Amino acid sequence: MAARAIRVRFAPSPTGFLHLGGLRTALYNYIFARKHRGCFILRLEDTDQSRVVPAASESIEDALEWAGLAPDESPRRGGPAAPYQQSLRCDLYKKYTDLLLEKGAAYRCFCTPQRLELLKKEALRSQQTPRYDNRCRHLNPKEVAEKISQGVDYAVRFCLEEQSDPFCDLIHGWSRHEVASVEGDPVILKSDGFPTYHLANVVDDHLMEISHVLRGVEWLTSTSKHLLLYKAFGWEPPHFGHLPLLLNEDGSKLSKRQGHVFVEEFAQDGYLPTTLLDLMTHCGSGFAENRIGRTLKELIDEFDLSRIERHSALLDLKKLPEFNRVHLAQWIGDERLRQKLVAEVQASVEEVYGEQLPEREVLEKGYIEQVLLLRRGHISRLKDLVSPSYAFLWIRPSVPSEKLQTFSTEADQIGRVVLRLPEKVPSLH
């Protein structure tokens, strides 16, 4: 690792809020970079414009900053390899596509969507895996020039080699996928001028001098294809490590239908960022031992990439309250972090009780600090302090007049009974 500066990237597509799986990928990249005094980059892969959600780019970077994983280079922060948004880098992709065309490592494909759909249907009808038949790969220069002169739309495809070289994945060990035998030549530049993931991530990783690619295991089978692209360009590829899937405790895929999956939802529900980071690394391996309550600094210090296991990581969200109770106690015990909590409690009390507050003293910093220290280790979330069971901390109990009348009558009856007790109890003398 010393021979090459450590530079890693987290490259989500801005198709919605940051989810737990994405946060875990960002976390492993972040702690790997910090462990080796490297650089952590946020790059947004937004070339599929049909799926881009407005404001998602901002929300992703907001979520990373909330979690304490602020990138060193990003669309918001800038950096030497800017822009960090792929839709703004199309001229670069066109340049490198032309380079592959000149080398004969790529070709123009004039097949219509209708023809490609027919190929797919025919393959499925024959119970085969759909694949492009590489028809346009065999067009001669005269045929290509004629179609271009006629204004026929085209995409650009990469010529897959028949044999791919094996590679050593940092997590899964030696691997090789003969992509040419199972799929046709992939599109690298679409007819609308936007690149596909395969081209864009290779070009960007090279230009941004990425040393290590830590991404989800779903991309493992595409790595041989990407290495062929590196070979065609004559570039040195980064080291690859494919992280195991993050699943529910029962082995099912994390899904909105089964509950929270977005980071923003956990933040709104009062869970601390360190809680989420601790819980995800607790189930995801990469450490000599698992224990509750690790800070981000401790995660960095204890992280060991070689300890990441190959099998899927099971996330037990039922443990969140207990993890949060431990982390909240740590925050309350830290004077700097406690001040952030005081401000949150002040805002929550104002919001929940508002004009019911009999006196403003309950909102003073000193009083709230005493409340936090008193309940340290007993509450799982700050919002517990503004629940009905803790209302006595902030407002005086209010009892309706009819209830007071009932209490008065009952107290009078109890008093009469108590006064008659000596008459009924035999004398002890």
Can you walk me through this structure?
The chain has 429 residues and is mainly α. 42% of the residues lie in helices and 10% in strands. The chain has 15 helices and 11 strands. The strands form 5 sheets. A 3-stranded antiparallel sheet has the order 3-4-7. Strand 5 and strand 6 form a beta hairpin. The longest helix is centred in the C-terminal third of the chain and has 24 residues. The mean pLDDT is 90.
Short note summarizing the structure:
By secondary structure, this protein is mainly alpha-helical. It has 15 helices and 11 strands.
Note the total helix count.
15
Total number of beta strands: 11
Question: What fraction of the residues are assigned to beta strands by DSSP?
Answer: 5-15%
User: What is the helix fraction of residues, given as a range?
Assistant: 40-55%
| Low-confidence runs | none
Mean pLDDT: 90
Structural class: mainly alpha
Largest sheet: 3 strands, antiparallel
Largest beta sheet: strand ordering: 3-4-7
**CA gyration radius, whole angstroms:** 31 Å
List the helices and strands and how they pair.
Layout (H helix, E strand, L loop, with lengths): L6 E4 L9 H16 L3 E4 L13 H11 L23 H14 L2 E4 L3 H13 L15 H9 L5 E4 L8 E3 L3 E3 L3 H4 L4 E3 L7 H11 L4 E5 L6 H11 L5 E5 L2 E3 L14 H6 L4 H12 L11 H7 L10 E3 L4 H14 L1 H19 L11 H11 L25 H24 L5
Parallel strand pairs: 1-2, 8-9, 10-11
Antiparallel strand pairs: 3-4, 4-7, 5-6
Helix pairs in contact: 1-10, 1-11, 10-12, 13-14
